[in-house]
Amino acid sequence: MQRDAPLNPGDGQARDLLERELSKPAYADQRSWLERLWDWAMDRLNDLLNGIGTALPLWMLLPALLLLAGVVTVALTQLRRRGRTKRAVEQAGVLADTTLTADQLRRRAEQAQSEGDLRSATLDLFRAIARAAEERALIVPRPGRTAHEVGAELSTFFPSQRDELRSAANLFDRVRYGGATATDDDATRMRALDAALTRTRPQHTVTHGAPA
């Protein structure tokens, strides 16, 4: 009869149990779907090349090669796009291409929205949120600050708007870097968040060791 593992294993037994658990197939494959797609395509290509040596019919070979070429093209395109997006997010901050004040950004956003340029309106409204935070001395001006960093830092001062700030940062990145289409509702909600932050008194937390 197989004995059950002890309820309180020692250090050596615990390590052995952990190693056995992590060796299971469920933990072994941590590849992304793109990596899985690439590996699958390479495996199929290898099968086809091996099949040539066994007189694989030409009418089967050509369509399969075309299919594999399409799969590889999609995978490479997605990998390049992901790499460009990541580099853009890391290198370009929210306020990297403007020196306008928060009020100037708001006016520019209003003009863009009235002209139907919802992308520019949505982006400028988030920039206005970031610039206003600098003008209120809530965050220190810093090159390269990302939308998510703006949202996270402002959440400490406006905890009741935490979810809206996170959603706004996600929207900024999707529109600016991901090619998403901004809607009139997106611009309106961004404007409402900016207005809410403007009229809300920030909560300044007391640092550890400072007098209450």
TrEMBL record:
Protein-glutamine gamma-glutamyltransferase-like C-terminal domain: residues covered: 125-194
Descriptive protein name: DUF4129 domain-containing protein
Gene source species: Flexivirga aerilata
Cross-referenced InterPro entries: TgpA-like_C
Top-level taxonomy: Bacteria, Bacillati, Actinomycetota, Actinomycetes, Micrococcales
Keyword terms: Membrane, Transmembrane, Transmembrane helix
Annotated TM spans: 56-77
